[in-house]
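User: Last request for today: this protein with flavin-adenine dinucleotide, please.
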Amino acid sequence: MSAISRICILGGGTAGWMTAAALSNKFKSLGLEITLVESDQIGTVGVGEATLPHIRFFNQALGIDEPTFMKSTEATFKLGIEFCDWGQRGDHYIHPFGDYGLPLDDLDFHQFWLKLQKAGQARRLSDYSYPIVAAENGRFQIPGDDPNKIGSNFGYAYQFDSSLYARFLRSYSEDKGVRRLEGRVVDVDLDSESGDVNSVKLEDGSRVTADLFVDCSGFRGVLIEQALETGYDDWSQWLPCNRAIAVPCESRGELLPFTRATARTAGWQWRIPLQHRTGNGHVYWNEFISDDEAAHQLMSSLEGPALAEPKQLFFKTGRRKKFWNRNVVSIGLSAGFLEPLESTSIHLIQEGITSLIELFPSQTINPLDIAEYNDRMALNFERVRDFLLLHYVATQRNDSEMWRYFQAMELPASLQEKIAAWSSRGYVLKYEFGVFLPPSWIAVMLGQNLLPTDHDPRIDKYPLADVKRRLDEIDQETRRAVEATPTQAEFLRRHGAASASAPILANGM
Ligand SMILES: Cc1cc2nc3c(=O)[nH]c(=O)nc-3n(C[C@H](O)[C@H](O)[C@H](O)COP(=O)(O)OP(=O)(O)OC[C@H]3O[C@@H](n4cnc5c(N)ncnc54)[C@H](O)[C@@H]3O)c2cc1C
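Assistant: Here's the final one, the structure of the complex with flavin-adenine dinucleotide:
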């Protein structure tokens, strides 16, 4: 039995309730007492609707039934992200959750494509990707289990209403014994000798004492920053967008199984289709656009009437200098922020929770475990930062001051190396940690017209005609598989995941 017997989670947003659900599921049998404090008066950030495929494993570990979860959170399936106007204005490509084509003789598919493309005989790279062609046609089904079939080598994620997800996990956690307290933390009591947090004081004067605190208080960082003054690594020189405006609107048209990110002159705009509405937002750098103009660009491009007043958000890209400091672990926005271009924040929450569970103190909190946790999370944040930055620098756009800023930027060494290895012969350097695997890098680099000068020489032993025949077969197989795939709306109904309040599904579209 651990000497850590009481945990206090401060914050009831996505981070707080994901943490509460996972810890109560793992440690309930050990008699761990978990208290979550949240303030209705402060509320949550109210955004964060698009996810990465890993969240499925999070839900599965909790024993959550997929259709029930999807109905409860108005969720849709997500096969990837469509990027519009990033390489050049008018361009668009989908970064899919899956591989392109099928590997041949253990060589990467994209190498065959590069050879054929150089000879002017290749179709779009996207045509050899089942999740992309399915997404473009509004279709979805669960991946098949035959690895030699085209409809098997992809993953999928969800797009959901974040407040409904928090509510769903709250009910799960309370069933597992988590105690919820409503109230604002107004003071933090630090141990005069160790400097650890002893307790938090609520507005009504009551106190919550614990051995370990998880700070899920959002951008405020009530424990990790306001109380412990941990410090923040500011990454705005690389990712300078610092504001967003978010607004939901009525959905129009087919229910598409992907998120869209459209590049703008001083940022980019998201579109996230849920069952009952569409989420929209404009992420921008206020140096080059006024708040009014940013709001105008967003509101004038909505597909349907707005369902709420637009909400403005302010942020600074970067990460906490220590994610785990003394007896406080920061998870969620309190740990750091990277813009939602690749829907990574909820994933970083999941990484934080997984590492906390793996390194959970057996007796007392061990500095070696803290160091390991901090190293892992730092790498995870850094890898995501580089991947996001790739979108801004692998581009031919120079039509506004923001795009010219990126053209003149000195890149982090880790990203420079990655681009250099790719540019010579299409090789993607592999990372030890980091969520984005080579197919993701390939999708963005080729999607934004960053073509390597050459391909892997091992491909040259294959005659061009054979390569073409093989790729044509994959293209045809992909199209046949997509034709046999139901629309997302149809699949949601069959799967028992369609919510009753979803107008787009009621219309039978
Ligand atoms: C513009 C934008 C778009 C985003 N889009 C995505 C996306 O598409 N995908 C994705 O993965 N992520 C996205 N994110 C990130 C995502 O929203 C967050 O990672 C996620 O919502 C977790 O937030 P949180 O729980 O850390 O903080 P919050 O939601 O802010 O919750 C903080 C909690 O702490 C409580 N609290 C704070 N102070 C106190 C106090 N003194 N006393 C008591 N309680 C307190 C609040 O009441 C609240 O319950 C986006 C973020 C932004 C800003």
